[in-house]
Fold these 2 entries.
Entry 1:
Amino acid sequence: MTLKDQINKTKLPAHIAIIMDGNGRWAKQKGMVRVFGHENGTKAVRQAVEASAEIGIKNLTLYAFSTENWNRPKLEVQTLMKLLVKSLKKEIKTLQDNKIKLQAIGHLEDLPKNAIAELRYVIDQTKNNENMTLTLALSYGSRDEIVKAFKDISTKVKNNIISVDTIDESIINKHLYTQNLPDVDLLIRTSGEHRISNFLLWQIAYAELYFTDILWPDFAKEDLYEAILNYQNRERRFGKTSEQLTS
Ligand code: IPE
Ligand code: IPE
Ligand code: MG
């Protein structure tokens, strides 16, 4: 049986998030410049998106560029932005064929104008697709997102739109970029790094974490299926005891 066939379709993670890491090291291992790794990373993006759609994952969120990544060398940042525009143009067909809706989260105003325009176009073109929501985290930082939520909620309290007593987890959820998404069930990070790097801090409160040494450009459909199988073999206790879950 293939890995894909072993996946239990009734126990799929409702939301998978991926920290796509290791492009630079992948290129370096081949004696190439870092941006060569980013170019090849876009192929792995397509693999992950298609693999998710094929098995019926409803929400996939990809960490493509962090607020901290602006501190990289200017040429690398420029190349990443160019690759974003190129990929959006190229992949719109994959999105339409698989009925995938694109959305983006992050401090999008910081992106170059042509990237914002292309993003808006693809988001608009795919807005009625219902098989899967693909969320790109761009100029995204979880702390930045939480600061924004604090500000927005405080303003509403100040203007008597909501009262302090009514603030609860669901109100906070509604003020995050990810307001329309369920909590992350499975968080994957490639490249052997074991950290979160300011990604979805609130949303991963009870996510299962999966780390693999594979560098992002090498991450293939089978690797995603393996991560999902690993997830399905875990016992998610949410604070309860194992006995409580089985009785
Ligand atoms: C991930 O790969 C892509 C981005 C963060 C944009 P890296 O570029 O971080 O690759 P490494 O970690 O340096 O190998
Ligand atoms: C995290 O990777 C950001 C993205 C994958 C977009 P980084 O490579 O930027 O993270 P650090 O710097 O190793 O923590
Ligand atoms: Mg990295």
Note: The mean pLDDT is 98.
Entry 2:
Amino acid sequence: MNKQSFEFSELDDLYQDIILDHYRRPRNQKVLDSTDIETEGFNPFCGDRVVLGMKLDHGTIQQVSLEGAGCSISQASASILSELIKGKDLSKARNLYSIFRSMMHGENISDQDMEELGEAEALAGVRKFPIRIKCALLSWVALEDGIKKNLKI
Ligand code: ZN
């Protein structure tokens, strides 16, 4: 068996369901009339692309728009992220990024941090497919880039 190819059957059933649900019905597919942060991620390996837009109110993410195309992992991960960051302030959102990155890199994270990740925990199984870790991280890295740029202004 090709170890690099992604097999849904190797993921826990519950996790498969969460990922497939977000892939088939991606959340926050809308256009906002204005955004305070707009950020994009692209992964040439499988052509994954995500564009995240955020509308802020006093540093809290009020609305999120997501546009994207690509593999199931990248799109499901972006959809989960778009739900997770709503209502969070920017430093909290960055913290979620760093927890998620640690999880994807196989570092130990506390139960409390894992709880913060909510449905994103479903992507932990993707660690078994190193080439797909980038797909899972794409939108999260884009989020971090977007926030960093915003904070510099
Ligand atoms: Zn991908």
Note: Strands lie at 37-43, 48-57, 60-69.
